[in-house]
Amino acid sequence: xxxxxxxxxxxPYARSYLAQxxxxxxxxxxxxxxxxxxxxxxxxxxxxxLEDFLGRxxxxxxxxxxxxxxxxxxxxxxxxxxxxxxxDPDPDAITRAGRLRQxxxxxxxxxxxxxxxxxxxxxxIVCNHVYEHVHDQRALALSIHRLLRRxxxxxxxxxxRLMLVEGHYGLPLLSWPPPAVxxxxxxxxxxxxxxxxxxxxxxxxxxxxxxxxxxxxTLRVLREPARFAAGELVGPAVSALPGAGLRLLYPLIPTYIxxxxxAQCLTSW
Length: 269
Known about the structure:
Elements: E1 2-4, H1 17-24, H2 36-54, E2 62-66, H3 72-78, E3 83-88, H4 91-97, E4 105-109, E5 122-128, H5 137-147, E6 148-159, H6 179-189, H7 202-208, E7 213-216, H8 218-223, H9 236-239, H10 243-249, E8 255-261
Parallel strand pairs: 1-4, 2-3, 2-5, 3-4, 5-6
Antiparallel strand pairs: 6-8, 7-8
């Protein structure tokens, strides 16, 4: 494993997000970013979706993970991909990630917005629940588009602003109001001081990703959780819902799982 020098960056995320998240402690509802079991489950789902979409081995492909944090998902991806680069502006996270030693795994301390790589240099990009932590989300989308090869794809999982229970803190409707109200809600609930996440609705996400063709895996993962390594994330009641019911509830689904490509998609929104 080799380390690449950091690039300049101005993202608010560049402050030690990992340390901040660890200090939040019991206030958060998600597993720690350094929890191996949680990260391996997420990596298994990502790999299952990508292998289904691509229909071929990943061993010859070059992958970039955006917002890699402590690098545990990147390390799991490196077991299947030819090479993996993890990028994150958080110095504490990249220091921890640097302890993972695999010959085909590398880490860069940088914001994706100014990642020091040439255009169209990755076959696959993974952006797993990252966009809500980036304040210039349009620049994020354009950066992914620039770095993705013409025939490549991006695994993009996105939290929905209209989720009924916010995924990071487990509080009802936390992501719905403006950020100032969300921060007030956190303080009243005793879960934190400031709500920094910036989730978007389904319709806003469509506009954000307008430069891509979107291949939607959301309902497939919900209907076939075992196939996509999502059994622990999808309850049997959800997977048993009829297709019409899932489509009706689609604007409120907490997380969307999409594969983005530069090519024209055969299916529409």
